[in-house]
Model the fold of this input.
Amino acid sequence: MKPDGRHLQVLLVEDSEDDAQLLIAALRKGGFAPDWVRVDNEEAFRAGLGVREWEIVICDYNLPSFGAPGAINVLRECGCHSPVIVVSGAVGEEVAVEILRRGAHDYVLKNNLPRLGPAVERALRESEARRLQQLSEAKKNFAEEALRSSAERYRLLFERNPIPMWVYDRTNWRILQVNDAAITHYGYSRDEFLALTTLDLRPEEDLPALLKTIRDRRNEAPLTRETWRHRKKDGSIIFVEVFTQPIKYGGRSARIAQALDITERKVTEQELTHVKMAVDFAADAIAIMDGSGASVYHNRAFEELLGYSPAQLNAAGGVRVLFIHQQVAEEVFASIFQSGSWAGDAYLASSTRKPIQLFLRVNSARDATGQVVTTSMVCTDLSEQKHAEGKIEEQAALLDHAQDAIIVHDLSGRINYWNKSARRVFGWTTAEVTGRRVQDLLYYVVEPFDDAMTDLLRHGTWTGELNQRNRDDQQVLVEGRWALVRDEFGDPKSVLSINTDITEKKKLEAQFLRAQRMESIGTLAGGIAHDLNNVLGPIIMAVDLFKLKMTSPADLELLETVAISARRGADMVRQVLSFARGFEGQRAPIRPLYLMKEVQRIARDTFPKSITIHVSAPEDTWNLLGDPTQLHQVLLNLCVNARDAMPEGGQLDLSAANLPIDAHLAATYADARPGAYVVLEIADTGTGMAPAVLEKIFEPFFTTKEIGQGTGLGLSTTLAIVRSHNGFITVDSIPGKGTTFKVHLPAKLDEAGAYLGEGQAEFPRGQGECVLVIDDEASVRSITSHTLEAFGYRVVTAVDGAEGVAKYAQHMEEIDAVLTDMMMPVMDGAAAIRTLSLLNPAVKIIAASGLSTKGDEAEAASGGVKIFLPKPYTASALLVALRDLLRTPS
Done:
């Protein structure tokens, strides 16, 4: 519906009076009654904007000096939001789109002016809608600002309140908000406070009473005031008077609480009660007298010890009549009137006239004029003390028989008791230590002693481990159990410390933990061996094939380089396997001297001439039973480490000796068992190792060498090999003086020594036999097939155990032997071997694995397998194994 005759304020930017009249006429036809002003330049346009607020601006696009783009820029600059309608004779679509993008509400051609009215109506409607939206947003912003202001005033009142305050949920008691005063007073951080409930602030022993109060409170009052005990973060208990009232917090039902700390008032009340109870129930006899000397109060102990009530004593003549020696009484009262106090031993007479030896402490209080108004007399029965002293002497004699080092020192650390075990552990005699400070005598640094004393004075007892030293300045690790000894007044007097020497125990624990760490890391390291062997196997077999085919010396030299690298990789895999699985290998009798001389020859050829190598072993040295290759590797690894520790040269000694180990000696080593051992000792005069390095040397991949100069597997592999031989290793090292490794290996007492070497490689040919090769690695299948075919065999291949069984069933009559990997997907080697044996009990099988373990070999043997081939194998090893298998009768 058109707004008939609607008044409209129009600012018209047009240089043609005739065109302006046409535009105004079009507005009137559109139902408007325009009140308009025409301008034709920027200065007049700016002046027109200052006169009034225009409802609509109609602007010609093309003017000589000022048009629609300039008008839109001026409106934007002045902050005017009047809608703009652009008119023009003829302008392209791109220009129209651009002017609309820059802020015009619509675009009308002068040859289509009937569109002007609807365009203005639409622009006014959109402008009014935008104005209403802006007004609504302004109201909303005003309300939000008012709400924020109110919330800010509440927050400041809550946060800056010096009294601890918090808000908590009435349903689950969880704390929802807390102020800074509560955080400071209770010691919790804000996050810690917001993780608590109000129940968490109460000591555990108060919770039953609190829960009963909650159950009894049927309808919670608008305002509550209660006294509770609260526990701070540091564990200290305070008394608080808590005021709470209900509030709404985040839409939930909550209460706000204020906690006023009244601990000091409560403590004062309790102290007064405790003082009265302490006096009344004190073990010492206490009497209170007035200024004239008359008794006004006797505690229970006084009446029980001496038999007098205040009235009875006054009737008998007062306190003076109690003193058996009157000169002592005169001395006591003269001192009271002169100095106000007296202390010493005295004999007093009971109501039965029995003399009692007491220690007296007499004190008086005076008024402002200096007159004595009150006198107290505290009497300690010395008969118990004398008896206790006798008991202490007896106990001291017993303590001398204790295995633990027992020391008593005062609060400053000066020693006044030192038992015989303390002398055994630390080396000093009682006479040498009495009166000396324990922190100066036993501690390298005093901070651990000071920390322990602080904890002891706070809690009364302390338990922990301490690094101390003995007379020879050697470290002694002790487990200390300290107790605070108090005097008759309950004040700390001295410290009783019982110290157990745990130095050796900790060494054994460290060895055990290191062994566990090695075992766990070893399991992880062994997982890579299978894939590495599958990578190296094809290379090693291919090298053997190429050597037989090539005649060029240059090609053979290049091929030998490849072969050396492949063998080195295989050796590294064997190191990982030895470390991870304790690979056992072939065992044979070994003469230690022969083994060490083999290593000596290698070292002399490869080590710097500045290193002197010496080998020795008694004639009666026992033999070993082990894998010569692996034990050769053990010695070579240790010798290489010794070489690297002597960059400037030095002495390297290899020796062997017999060592019987009994049960007692075996208990001192983590991996030792009782029996006969041969000790292979490798000692150098190199740089040595610090204790921190010594603890980590057997960890896999740990090395102190520069990057590229060491794998970190040498010593971990060495340890794994020695353990696989049921042996163990010890090491001693002094920085700057050298290192000694001792390899303990079980002796073989009933066989002569021997050393097994490798023979010349053989490449026996087949006679057209058919071999089924089962392996999940394509490269292994390929090179194995080529190798067998090159040496006169026919080959059938399968990618896993399931396919292998199927092909064997299909070609059973022509397959003469089976070569199968043990680790495969779908069906592994063990399952395939069992299935093949069911199909043909006489089947001939070679089992191969990159993880050669006793478990794999046992599973293969259970299926009738006679030959187990460890990966990576050479072409020669494969062909020899296949020849021996085929020669074996079915």
User: Anything to note?
Assistant: The radius of gyration is 51 Å.
